[in-house]
């Protein structure tokens, strides 16, 4: 398991991507994980207190033979929790978590008084009940 804390600046999204790519180097899940971390980090900066002057966001990456789990925790500060929405073709916002849920096998949002944690899981092999191969 690895962890990284980043200041809430837009340029930190590329740092989060690079960090994820470095840890998962050689994994067939690396590109999907990098895209997910990029989206979740950008959401934390754009939509929560993490993107304010003294804000930050935190990443956790857990790797096992069965799953890669990526979590991004923000500092909250909004009246609503992140949620997966499937927008129509004309929508200009709200597609990010929908995209993450299309790539990941499972997405879980956990809210607490200190913020939100969005965890996306990529299974190394799709289970018999569905999922998509990576």
TrEMBL record:
Residues 10-120 form the Histidine kinase/HSP90-like ATPase domain. One of its GO terms (molecular function) is protein serine/threonine kinase activity. SUPFAM superfamilies: ATPase domain of HSP90 chaperone/DNA topoisomerase II/histidine kinase. Keywords: Kinase, Serine/threonine-protein kinase, Transferase. The keyword Cytoplasm does not apply. The keyword Transferase applies. Pfam families: HATPase_c_2. PANTHER family: ANTI-SIGMA-F FACTOR RSBW (PTHR35526:SF3), ANTI-SIGMA-F FACTOR RSBW-RELATED (PTHR35526). This is Histidine kinase/HSP90-like ATPase domain-containing protein.
